[in-house]
């Protein structure tokens, strides 16, 4: 579990608005996706990428993960976005319209080239592909396996519904199959799954319901279009008190078993096996992020048990 | 010139009166007795109802050089002060001082009468153009800025004597009993006017809603009122109270509110008996909303809500989250409707609210107050009077009073106003001394005054973004750059009184 990164909330910020970029440090989201794609008009593509570069160069005390959504690589802006922005060291690239494994592989190759040029560690830049078409959803498994840089799969419902020629409803029933398929691919690969945006920023109840659904399905985070949505999403992804209590008991049981030198760990008459420990560790890391527990989980205790 | 304890240069005297430099929030001990007013006798059958404002002014005995007062509960919808000044001008009077509880932008109409010498000066703070013009040197009239509690003190101790108080009375009978609860110009609490009525030499009630004797409930009684005058309109109801006091939806404001509410929770004050004051700004209301939710969640029953009362506080009262509201002024329509309906919605005078020189003001019982700022400095001193251009645009209100009284005073402000950083090396004008400020909350971090070291530790433990105030300043200035200092002339255009009457700062003419 080394390298675990909490990604409950991934907030979109337009790359062409200095007033919004300057507020990035203040919001409590886990990740920011600075957008050079849909939020930026064609006439501002060039200015926006340079603005983003300047912002990233000056944002030295980074307090959250920074991703940049570039334009698709088959447009005339995609490569240029990478060329200008990568020297400012974002943490990763959000790749829109990741319809096929080949598109991701191409980005992977480009990132490697830039890493060599910039003399940084190969694999430094992560990839968050956005599966947002029927083709992308069908290819989810192949995409998940197309690059080791991929740390999560993101589902994009707006473009997906457009590609399906359907309307997106508040309940989202029409998204169910696609959501599940993206999720399966992510879980099979052992990476995170990030749910689509909820566009109505005034409908907090709708946002909560959709986030709860995504969490129940297995998603670990959600993309957001407004900072006001962060609190609701974090609240949904916060572990329940009884989950935290149980997870603490699991860790305590592991530590007790290690002191006794026994490999068999039981709690309340039930065996504590690796999946239970893994789940407990995830709950406690999330609980720590929410301020529900005071200390970070004892990694040694976890790894020792596994 | 003398230096006060905050390092501000204070002249020996201003507008012919000696000044006391500010020393400490609680140092001055008052001596002597409260001011007096003339004894009166009104025999059975004598009438108080006069036919016009002119007749009332004549009957009051107002003369050149005297002082008049109005109250500001009708705020920017007030018609009365403008009408009185116009009438005084028409009568040929000169050198009149205004000692209203506050002057609003709507009163810019009296500027020609300042220029012509009808109005000589202000024994009160001003909002808007009058202050701006004075700061630019475009009008010459002394201004003494006072807090709500400080104004009550100055009238009660007699350092400001009101010769004639004209009281806008939204609901009044012909013998002078009045309240602000009913009528077309209803404004709710008459907390400021109660002081004027008690201490002025002559009291004129002006109403647009004369009702049969007796008005009940009585906010200001007939025993204090000399004359009653009926006018067509006291004010513009749309501007008397705001109907748009709403929780902010701005993400930055919400972030600030979230931090502020977490500060309150971390302070340990949010428990049964909690008492609280906020303003009507969007961020303040967002804090109130979060506090309300926390009180619900924790089944906390508060003691009282205070100050300018909004519908939010009314809802909290009616929900049982507070036992009482202590109301010196109503900030919105819901509050006005409540004060006539809820027995536990208590109208209080500015004296009871915040006067430091009585046997105990309500602000002394406040656990927590949320306040705004135009600037804060690295010593936690707060400016609410002048803007960063140096213009005197705002009165103090209850800012310094509540900061001094409350156990915890929290400043909430966006880190950047316009393009300027909120935290400065030195504020343009000190309104409220840093030693009475507990915490400064911005969206970029929380600065805690060292006197609240335990709270600071608790906030750090809760993983809130606690920063040294200088560190916060540097961080903001990395975004905004460092603003060039303003330049001022030597001429003092206004003095800022602390609540005890000492001078905390002066406003100088801006060098154009």
Automatic annotation (TrEMBL), chain A:
InterPro entries: Aldolase/citrate-lyase_domain, Citrate_lyase_beta/mcl1/mcl2. Keywords: Lyase, Magnesium, Metal-binding. Its cofactor is Mg(2+). Residues 8-227 form the HpcH/HpaI aldolase/citrate lyase domain. Pfam families: HpcH_HpaI. The keyword Metal-binding applies. It comes from the Bacteria. This is CoA ester lyase.
UniProtKB/TrEMBL annotation, chain B:
It comes from the Bacteria. GO terms for molecular function: citrate (pro-3S)-lyase activity; citrate CoA-transferase activity. It is found in: Cytoplasm. It holds the Pfam family CitF. It catalyses: citrate = oxaloacetate + acetate; citrate + acetyl-CoA = (3S)-citryl-CoA + acetate. Its EC number is 2.8.3.10, 4.1.3.6. Keywords: Cytoplasm, Lyase, Transferase. PANTHER family: CITRATE LYASE ALPHA CHAIN. This is Citrate lyase alpha chain. It comes from Geomonas oryzisoli.
């Amino acid at each position: 579990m080394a390298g675990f990164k909490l990604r409950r909330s991934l907030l979109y910020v337009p790359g062409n608005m200095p007033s919004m970029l300057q507020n990035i440090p203040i919001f409590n989201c886990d990740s920011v996706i600075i957008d050079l794609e849909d939020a930026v008009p064609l006439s501002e593509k060039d200015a926006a990428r340079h603005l983003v570069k300047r912002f990233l160069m000056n944002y030295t005390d980074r307090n959250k993960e920074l991703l940049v959504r570039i334009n698709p690589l088959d447009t005339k802006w995609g490569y240029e976005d990478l060329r200008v922005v990568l020297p400012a060291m974002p943490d990763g690239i959000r790749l829109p319209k990741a319809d096929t494994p080949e598109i991701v592989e191409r980005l992977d190759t480009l990132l490697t080239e830039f890493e060599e040029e910039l003399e940084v560690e190969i694999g430094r830049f992560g990839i968050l592909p956005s599966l947002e078409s029927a083709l992308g959803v069908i290819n989810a498994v192949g995409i998940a396996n197309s690059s080791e840089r991929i740390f999560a799969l993101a589902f994009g419902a707006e473009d997906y519904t457009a590609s399906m020629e359907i309307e997106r409803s508040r309940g989202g029933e029409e998204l169910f199959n696609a959501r599940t398929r993206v999720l399966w691919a992510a879980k099979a690969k052992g990476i995170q799954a990030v749910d689509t945006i909820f566009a109505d920023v005034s409908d907090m109840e709708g946002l909560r319901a959709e986030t709860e659904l995504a969490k129940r399905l297995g998603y670990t985070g959600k993309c957001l279009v407004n900072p006001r949505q962060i609190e609701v999403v974090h609240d949904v992804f916060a572990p329940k008190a009884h989950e935290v209590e149980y997870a603490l008991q699991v860790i305590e049981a592991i530590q007790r078993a290690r002191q006794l030198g026994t490999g068999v760990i039981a709690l309340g008459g039930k065996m504590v096996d690796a999946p239970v420990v893994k789940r407990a560790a995830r709950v406690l890391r999330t609980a720590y992020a929410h301020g529900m527990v005071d200390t970070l989980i004892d990694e040694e205790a976890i790894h020792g048990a596994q | 010139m003398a230096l006060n304890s905050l390092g501000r240069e204070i002249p020996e005297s201003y507008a012919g009166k000696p000044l006391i430099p500010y020393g400490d929030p609680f140092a001055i001990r008052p001596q002597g007795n409260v001011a007096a007013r003339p004894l009166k006798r009104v025999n059975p059958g004598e009438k108080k109802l006069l036919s016009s404002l002119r007749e009332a002014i004549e009957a009051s005995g107002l003369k050149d050089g005297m002082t008049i007062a109005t109250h500001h509960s009708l705020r920017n919808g007030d018609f009365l002060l403008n009408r009185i000044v116009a009438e005084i001008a028409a009568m040929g009077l000169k050198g009149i001082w205004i000692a209203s509880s506050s002057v609003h932008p709507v009163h810019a109409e009296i500027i020609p009468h300042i220029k012509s010498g009808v109005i000589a000066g202000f024994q009160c703070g001003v909002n808007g153009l009058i202050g701006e013009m004075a700061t630019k040197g475009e009008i010459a009239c002394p201004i003494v800025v006072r807090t709500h509690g400080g104004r009550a003190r100055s009238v009660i101790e007699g350092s400001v004597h009101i010769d004639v108080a004209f009281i806008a009375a939204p609901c009044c009978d012909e013998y002078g009993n009045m309240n602000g609860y009913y009528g077309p110009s209803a404004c709710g609490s008459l907390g400021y006017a109660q002081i004027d009525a008690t201490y002025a030499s002559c009291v004129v009630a002006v109403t647009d809603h004369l009702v049969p004797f007796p008005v009940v409930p009585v906010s200001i009684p007939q025993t204090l009122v000399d004359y009653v005058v009926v006018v067509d309109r006291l004010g513009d109801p749309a501007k008397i109270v705001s109907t748009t006091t709403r929780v902010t939806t701005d993400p930055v404001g919400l972030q600030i509110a979230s931090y502020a509410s977490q500060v309150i929770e971390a302070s340990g004050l949010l428990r049964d008996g909690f008492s609280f004051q906020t303003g009507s700004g969007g961020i303040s209301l967002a804090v109130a909303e979060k506090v309300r939710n926390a009180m619900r969640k924790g089944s906390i029953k508060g003691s009282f809500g205070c100050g300018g009362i909004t519908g939010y506080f009314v809802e909290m009262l009616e929900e049982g989250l507070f036992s009482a509201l202590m109301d010196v002024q109503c900030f919105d329509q819901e509050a006005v409707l409540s004060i006539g309906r809820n027995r536990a919605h208590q109208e209080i005078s500015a004296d009871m609210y915040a006067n430091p020189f009585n046997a105990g003001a309500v602000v002394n019982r406040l656990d927590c107050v949320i306040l705004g700022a135009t600037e804060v400095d690295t010593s936690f001193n707060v400016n609410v009077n002048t803007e960063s251009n140096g213009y005197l645009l705002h009165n103090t209100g209850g800012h310094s009073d509540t900061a001094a009284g409350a156990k915890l005073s929290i400043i909430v402000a966006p880190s950047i106003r316009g393009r300027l950083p909120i935290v400065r090396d030195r504020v343009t004008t000190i309104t409220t001394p840093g030693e009475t400020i507990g915490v400064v909350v911005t969206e970029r971090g929380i600065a805690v005054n060292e006197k609240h070291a335990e709270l600071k530790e608790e906030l750090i433990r809760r993983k809130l973004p606690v920063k040294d105030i200088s560190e916060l300043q540097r961080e903001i200035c990395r975004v905004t750059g460092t603003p060039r200092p303003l330049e001022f002339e030597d001429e003092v255009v206004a003095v800022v009184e602390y609540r005890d009457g000492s001078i905390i700062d002066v406003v100088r003419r801006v060098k154009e």
